[in-house]
Structures are given as structure tokens and as C-alpha cells.
Amino acid sequence: MQELQKQQAEKEAKEKEEKQKKSGLSDQEKAELQAKMMEIKRLEEMQTMAAEQQTRLDGLVQQLTQKGEVHEALLKEIAAGVTSPKPMQMDPAITEETTKLIGAIQTEVEKHVKDFRGQLTGEVQRMFKEVGKLRDEKKDLQAQIADLLAFQAKQAGAGVRAHSSL
User: Fold this and answer.
1) Which residue has the higher pLDDT, 50 or 23?
2) d(Cα 12, Cα 9) in Å, to the nearest integer?
3) What DSSP character marks residue 86?
């Protein structure tokens, strides 16, 4: 009885050893698989970082837009206050000089508003381009991750087929 058990154990050990030899991955394949898994992890981390950057950029764009609206409203209020006539009795020469100054100030304010709009527009466009680049990078990373996951699934499937053919 013990002899049968001993023979059975030896037979099982040999079968197990043969199975490992036939269906196991080679050291090179294991190294490649490990490298691919590390690459997947790195790409996932990069994707997370890109998503965080996208969120921060969206927040910054929103803040810039809000500040631009506030500044524009303040400039309009200042311009309206400068141009609105106030009932006062002044010397006609002073009134004429004041009118000229108000006209000059209004012109300068309008120039500054246009300049500010141009600068703000340029900055917003630059940020949108950067956001577009980040979106493209994100898509590329997602495609790479999909390729690596497909490769990993293929490798795992090849290992399963080797086990089932025994």
C-alpha cells in the first residue's frame, strides 16, 4: 500500500514538473511581461497626472474668465462714472478743459479695455491649445494602455491554452 502511494506521489511529481516545463513562461517572456506590466502602471500614473492637470487647467481657465468679466464690469462702471454729467457750476474754461480731459480719459480707458481683452483672449487661446494637447496626450496614453492590456490578455490567454491542452 505504501509502495503504491510512493509510486503515485512520484508520478504526480513528474507530471507536475512536465506541466511546468511545457506550459510555463520562459524567463525572457516573464521579463517581457513584467516590463509590460510596469509600463502599464507607469502609463496609468501618467494618465492620472494628465487628468489632474486637466482639472487644474479647467479651473484656471474658469478663474481667468471670471476675473476678466469682473475687470470688464469694473472698467465699464468707471467709464460710466467718468462720462456721466454731474450738475455743477464751473467756470466755462474749466468746464471745457474738464470735458477734454474726460474725453481723453474715456479714450484711454477704451484703449486699455481693448488691450486687456486682446491679452486675455491670447492667454485663453494659448490655454485652450495646451488643453487640446493634453487631451491628445491623454488619448495616446489610453491607446497605449489598451494595447498593453491586449498584449497582457493575449499572454494570459496563451498560458491558459497551454494548460488546457495538457
Assistant:
1) 50
2) 5
3) -
C-alpha cell at 131: 488643453
**Closest C-alpha among 68, 72, 71, 48 to residue 60:** 68
pLDDT level of residue 159 (50, 70, 90 thresholds) = low
Residue 106 reports pLDDT greater than 80: yes
For helices 92-165 and 27-83, give the axis angle rounded to 10 degrees: 160
The rounded mean pLDDT for the chain is 83
- Nearest to 153, CA basis, from 31, 33, 20, 30: 33
Q: Which residues contact 65 (CB under 8 A, 6 or more apart)?
A: 124
CA 122 to CA 116: how far, in whole Å? 10
Torsion (CA) 25, 36, 34, 13 in degrees, nearest 10: -20
Residues 47, 142: contact at Cβ < 8 Å? yes
Q: What is the pLDDT of residues 1-44, one digit of tens each?
A: 677 778 888 888 777 776 666 556 677 877 888 999 999 999 98
